[in-house]
Structures are given as C-alpha cells and as structure tokens.
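Minutes, methods subgroup
Present: GH (chair), OT, SY

1. OT presented the first of two proteins processed in the latest run. Sequence and structure tokens recorded below as shown on screen.
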Amino acid sequence: MKKVFLIFTALLFMGCSSVMKGLKTDKAVKIIFDTDMGNDIDDGLALDMLYKYVEDGKVDLLAITSNKKESGSTEYLDIMNNFYGFPNVPIGKITDGPDSKKGDHFAFNVSQDKSYKRSIKDYDKIPESVDLLRKTLQKHKNNSVVIVAVGFSSNLSRLLDSKPDDISPLTGKELIAKKVKYLCMMAGDFRPERKHSEYNVRLDKQSAQNVFKNWPTKIVTSPFEVGLDIKYPGSSISKDFTYVKKHPLVKGYEAFAKMPYDRQTWDLTSVLYAVEGDGNGKYFSLSSAGNIEVQEDSKTVYEPSAKGNRYYLKVNEEQKKAVANRFLEIITRVPKVLEK
C-alpha cells in the first residue's frame, strides 16, 4: 500500500510540474521566436501569447533569438522568461546588427529594474543568435520546426549563409531545408494603393532580399496592413493585469508610449497564424502561392506563381474582430505560474 501511495505521489508531482513547464505533446508546434524586442511593444504582447500557448500544450518554445543589438533586448527576454515560469528557454543575441531605435527603449527601461528575477548572469556571454539557431535546428526532427520572425531578417539571412561547423556539417541553407517546416514572418506591405517600405524590411533590406529570394522552405508573411487596424486596447493594460503588483509586459507597454493608447498587433498576427493557422477562415485568408521580391526601395512585390512557395495573410472586417477578441482572450489570462 505504501508503494502504491509513493507511485501516486510521484505521478501527482509530475503532473503539477508539467503544468508549470507547459505540456509538450506530439501536437505542440515547435517554435523558434526571432524578435527585435525593444523596438515595439507588440513583440512583448506576441511573446506573452507564446508562453500561454506553451501552458496549453500547443507550443514547444525551443529558443528565442534577438535581432536587436542593444543588450536591453536580451535582458528583457530573460526577465520575461522568468516571470512567466520558463527560465530555461535559451536566448541568443546579435552582434553588429542593423541600426534601430537605441538607448531609452521600453525593454531597456524595464531591464533597469533589478528586482525582476533573471537567469543569465552575463549577457555578453550568451550565444550568437545564428549559432543558437543552428544548434536548435540540428537537434530536432526533420521538417518539424516553425520559425516565427517578427523583426529584422538579419539572423535569418546569417543562418541562411552560414557554413558547416562543429554544430552541423550542413550549410545553413541545407539545415533549413532539412529541419524547418516553414517560416512565418511579419514583413512587407502588399496594398496596391498605399504600399510603403515596411520597417522590418527597410532597416535591413539586404537581409530581407536574401531571405525572400533564397529561403528554401515555404514562407508565410503577415504584412503591415494585417495588424494595422487590429489594435490591443490600452484599457486592457490598465485593468486586466492587477493580479500582480509589477508586470514586465505592463511596464513595457507603459514605457513604450504615453498611456492610454491602443497599439497595432503586427507581430501577434504571425504568432496566431503559426499556432492556430487561419482558424478555418475565422482569422485569416491566405494568398495564392507566389514569389515575393524586395525591391531596392525596400518595397515588397508579390507575383502569383503556381511554382512559388511564398504566401501572405489577408483579413476582412469580420476576421479583424475575431483576431482582436482572440488576442484579448489569450493575453488577459493569468500565467499559470502566478495562479493562486
């Protein structure tokens, strides 16, 4: 009888532990999150969604790679990992990345508060993003990893151009072709009437050109116009997070711009599609297959082609409402690590 009790206790402990760590099931989407955390608060909102999906057993978050070179970016990622109960998710940094908003960005501001728990002692010693990408891809099954990229294409381009090394005998392009299921990225603008050079593309045009031209797997991009009119309400930030005195996502939102304000959800749309797809048409519509070219003025051009493997998301008014409601449903949920 005592043996039975001990077995039951062990199983109960394992069950509780899996709630804290997230349930990794065969159906969980294996995701690497590549982000310019610190440039826009929608990266923080998107990361919150990923943690919640991990809790639900829908995502296995393999790694987070920063493509923003300021150290506050990686420190904020470490703070978020610990706050949400996932301190062991590996983080990568970028050296000599593209110029972007410097200094007093929201991630830097939050990282100045030393009361937040951290796991990393020296942010200068964390791996380069391209090395972490190669290491992560190498150890997972073929055609199993989805990369969600919501910033500059710098890390992706460097991965694509990487050479065989101690991590893998494959080139970056070969490794991507073997291990990546598809790339889901926030980039571009495909509106025929008001097309502009979208920020993620413009800040590192050459890398974006390389990725759209040479990436060997399917790419699904969520363009500027998709998240433009789907906004996360500042009123939610003010009233839905009182379950904790100090929340790094809330503090980041408050530091990004003067409250109250509603913020576009560009990066969140890529996360939603990567995990839940188009929702059987509830959330998105998908373009036909084609090719995407980044022009010298940084504008993106889509050309339909039956032989192409580039797609972009589209939304109508009803879908915008459904997506906005889904964002609220996920993000306002109390993280399991904080549930009483």
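2. SY then presented the second protein from the same run.
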Amino acid sequence: MNTLLQGTALHRAYGPTPALRGVDIEVTEGEIVAVTGPSGCGKSTLLHCLAGIMRVDSGSVRYRDQDIGLWSESARSKLRRTEFGVLFQFGQLVPELTAGENVALPLLLGGVKRREAQKTAEEWLDRFGVAELAGKLPGAMSGGQQQRCAVARAMVTEPRALFADEPTGALDVLTGEQVLGEIVRVAREKGMAVVLVTHEAQIAAYADREISLRDGALDPTGLGLRTRA
C-alpha cells in the first residue's frame, strides 16, 4: 500500500507545556490506525495536526507527499471539506440545521447543487440507519442518533482519510461499538484511511494497527507501535 499521510518529528506545545515531542507516524491508503494512551498524552493534538486543523511547531505533516503545513488556512480548510473528513466526540452538528442539512453542508460548501447534495445526504443517512431523521433537528435526537448523523456528514464527500477524535466517548458501550462498526464497514468498502483516537481498548481493537502515546511521545515501553495479526 502507498503512504497516504506521514508525520515526521512532530512537535507542538501550548505555551510552555509540550503536547507532542517528536512523534513519527505513517498511515497508508485504506489503513485504520488507532492512537491510544492516557488522557493528556497528546492524542487529540496529534490528530488535529495530521488533519491540518492546527500547525505543528516543528516537523512536517505530508499528505500524498505534500507538506500541508506550508499551505494557507483556506487551502487546509478546503482539504478538510474534500479529501479529509473530521469526526469529533460530540458530533458537533449545527443545532439550527436538520440532520439532512447538516450532512449536505460539506457538499454545498464544495459547490454541489442543493438538490444533488440533499439526495446524497439522504443516501448517507440511510447507510448509517438514520434516514428517518433527515428532517429532524439535533435537539430531537438521542446521542447515538446525533453521532450517526455526524459520521454521515464526515463521510459524505467520500474522503481519502477520516480523522475520528474519541467518536464513541459520549456513547454507551453498545451504541459506541455499533457506530464504530459502521465506520469501519464503510471505510473498508470505500478504501478510506482512518486515524482513530481512543482510550478504550475495545474500540482500538477495530484498527489494523495501534500507536500508543505517553507524555507526547511514542510509548517507550515498546508498545508504541503494534500491528494486529
């Protein structure tokens, strides 16, 4: 498989506090990688740097051999609307928009005509078993339903890479595993790479490979890079 995304010697600090200390990571096309470790170890910061949400202080993030750290904010925003999908722990649906409108939003921002965007959004809501919610506002949905809609929104553009930050953290165990199973199923079907941040072993088990962080660096105990059989 070809390398899709590569982070090299990544450093990032918040004021005097280091969050990443020289992390190296490589993700190949269609691979699912779990990033694990205790709270505060730098997992979310790593994901945000890889997704181009924030810049590293030093090191490089290369997507298809291009250093996205050199790109403008508008270029990185466009990347996240087209070839990257981002999924957060609490979904972060726009509360004033219906489920269908939320899912259609990335397409509309990309210039897709409204009717086509709505049709595609409905197809993705159906793929995740929540087609009946297309006309409902987020406030009228359960947490699991909101997260399924958020997954559909993150995947509606069929990105080459999905970045999922604790996507099941706000859900009960059963619902969380159902949502993760759906993410993995669609990612396999579409050949989509996934970078999955989690502190739960049963969620990390869905990945092809697990990278463990501790204090902003790869875990020095030897568990920093594990490939599943």
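Chair's summary of item 2: The CA atoms of residues 79 and 223 lie 32 Å apart.
Next meeting: continue with the remaining queue.
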